[in-house]
Design brief:
single chain, about 450 residues, alpha+beta, five-stranded mixed β-sheet, three-stranded antiparallel β-sheet, 16 helices
Length: about 450
């Protein structure tokens, strides 16, 4: 706070449970009084928080800030607290969130082949099919937890299909992913164990796919096979890189969409006027408000609260603050996207907002790779729920809801809702009757699962 006035009030407490419920007043204080603020994180690591929009946008694109934890000027213990729990021990460090050009450029080019506009269009009917199937699973009951029964399974099975994980193995991935969400802000041991299990499974899957890989790629080839094929044709993708890439596509790809859907639904349920406008637009067969609405939900209470770690490779000046080489820097996307210097009435939810260049999926070379697919899933999920369950409402008091602890992501633990029970039509987007959702003894889905998005998260 070297070039800013001394505030009249003390700095707010950060990273408490109360803060997690509504961090926006604290972020407003930081933007005004300490826009580039050094703080001690719950992990014990000290880092700089960047909260103003202009500074955030500059920081996200500044190549003097490395994604490689090797540039962190901290102890070995501190370095181990700055990434995904367990990724270092599992030899999963060489992924998009931890590397810089030219390696980042090479790996991103390989993966980006899976996210062309044509492939996004091809996924839309499968996303709609899964969305309808999941709603069929609770529509007759008149109540549901939209996190565990809808927002969570939608992207996790989609990611698995995209990677090429056999369907008989996908429930294991659901369990591992659930452990990552449940322990996002607590003991890292559970997450590390899940990461280790994923690493072992992915190594075996990559080996099996390499052994069975046909000479020529067929239509709709899965992403792991595509990565292996690229490696075998001179792109120099090692097996560790392939495993790390598959891991981060799963890890980073599913929770962003879980939170986009969950946070978006919560915002709509607590803003009845905006929700009514959207439902009227959908009933009229219009898509414009849905498209701008999802962008506004990403800005207003997005799925990624802080961009992933960056480390100064030399002395850097951000927002009038000198940051030393080796210091960690975290861009607070949630604070930047409510900056009144950039957005008119930033604390107001306006689904029709047009001037909305939010940072919800980052900026620069680390802009979210799977953003178009995540948006597709978000639009499909919200539109279908509001159309099929028009009187959807929160079950209980919103003050009783709890947000998951954690540093990077922002999402609800649960989202209990109630609505008028409806008869199961058994009809998904394909119009085929009798294709509802089955569950096994653990409550896992047994039906077909579509392909979906993934993310190079900020």
């Amino acid at each position: 706070m070297t070039e800013h006035e001394t505030p009249a009030s003390p700095a707010p407490e950060l990273f408490s449970w109360e803060f997690a419920t509504d961090p926006y007043p604290a972020y407003a204080w930081l933007r005004e009084h300490a826009p580039v603020h050094r703080t001690r994180l719950p992990s014990g690591v000290e880092a700089w928080l960047v909260t103003r929009y202009a500074d955030a946008r500059q920081t996200l694109a500044d190549q003097r800030l490395s994604k490689n934890p090797a540039h962190h000027d901290g102890s070995a213990h501190a370095k181990g607290r700055t990434g995904i729990p367990g990724e270092r021990k599992a030899d999963l460090m060489t992924h998009l969130l931890n590397i810089d050009p030219p390696d980042h450029t090479r790996l991103r080019r390989l993966v980006s082949k899976a996210f062309t506009p044509r492939r996004v269009a091809e996924f839309s009917s499968r996303v709609q099919e899964l969305t309808d199937d999941l709603i069929d699973g609770f529509a007759e009951r008149g109540s549901a937890d939209l996190i565990h029964e809808f927002a969570f399974p939608l992207p996790i099975y989609a990611i698995c299909d995209m990677l090429g994980v056999p369907r008989e193995d996908q429930d294991d991935f659901r369990d591992w992913a659930g452990m990552m969400i449940r322990h996002g802000g607590g003991p890292r041991g559970g997450v590390a164990r899940s990461v280790k299990k994923m690493r072992g499974y992915l190594a075996e899957l990559i080996h099996r796919k390499r052994e069975a890989l046909p000479a020529e790629a067929g239509p709709g080839e899965d992403l792991i096979s595509g990565l292996i094929r690229a490696s075998d044709h001179g792109e120099h993708l090692t097996e560790n890189e392939a495993a790390a890439m598959a891991f981060i596509l799963l890890f980073a790809g599913f929770e962003t969409t879980v939170n986009l859907i969950g946070n978006g639904l919560y915002a709509l349920l607590t803003h009845p006027g905006q929700r009514a406008r959207l439902q009227a637009s959908l009933a009229a067969g219009e898509s414009g408000l849905l498209e701008t609405g999802v962008e506004e939900l990403l800005r207003y209470d997005g799925p990624v609260e802080l961009a992933t770690w960056r480390f100064a490779t030399e002395s850097v000046r951000i927002g009038g603050q000198d940051i030393a080489a080796g210091d960690p820097v975290l861009v607070v996307l949630a604070a930047a996207d409510r900056d009144p210097e950039r957005f008119e009435q930033p604390d107001t939810l306006d689904l029709a907002r047009r001037d909305n260049q939010h940072l919800g999926y980052g900026h620069g070379i680390h802009y979210c790779l799977g953003a178009p697919l995540a948006r597709l899933e978000g639009q499909t999920a919200l539109a279908t729920l509001l159309t099929r369950l028009p009187d959807l409402q929160l079950a209980g008091d919103s003050a009783d809801l709890r947000w998951r602890g954690g540093l990077i992501m922002r999402g609800l633990r649960t989202l209990p809702v109630e609505f008028t029970p409806v008869g199961q039509s058994g009809t998904g987007s394909s119009g085929t009757p009798g294709d509802g959702v089955g569950q096994d003894s653990r409550g896992h889905r047994e039906d077909a699962r579509p392909t979906g998005p993934t993310d190079d998260v900020n």
